[in-house]
């Protein structure tokens, strides 16, 4: 598995993935060129303190994974910070498998496990990675658990998809 930084050349792929039903269910993201630029361009340009990566398996793009420091987005993450123990320097990740054919085969668990190792190498002061997941997305939180994350909290957080009730489970992996 390889993680490479996103480029603007990836935007049509991201739009396709975000528009697919299995991704759109949980990401609920606009897919216009303007929306993709708005939400992913800052990572490429360095104007946002986040890092977006295309996940490739055998040279084929299969998904997206991103990381950021939770406290860099404290205003947006206030509910998470109040719900769980979020130490300074803690990271969060978000991800999806864009190619439907790659789902259900353990790819998500491997992706999370390998990216977690990369995060700890790239961010040597990060004490932990904390990931909130809407509770109805069982595949996601089961992949986190299989990748060595522990459930540390449950509670209400603003939902990404307005059709969800906002109930989330929160997983954490501490630096080894």
Features:
single chain; 176 residues; alpha+beta; Aminopeptidase; 4-stranded antiparallel beta sheet; 3-stranded antiparallel beta sheet; 6 helices; globular; GNAT_dom
Description:
By secondary structure, the chain is α+β, with helices and mostly antiparallel strands. It has one domain: 3-Layer(aba) Sandwich (Aminopeptidase). Helices cover 34% and strands 29% of the residues. It is built from 6 helices and 7 strands; from the N terminus they run E-H-H-H-E-E-H-E-H-E-H-E-E. The protein has helices at 11-19, 21-27, 33-45, 78-83, 107-122, 138-146; strands at residues 2-5, 50-57, 60-69, 91-97, 128-134, 150-156, 167-174. Strands 1-2-3-4 form a 4-stranded antiparallel beta sheet. The longest helix has 16 residues, at 107-122. The protein is globular, with a radius of gyration of 15 Å.
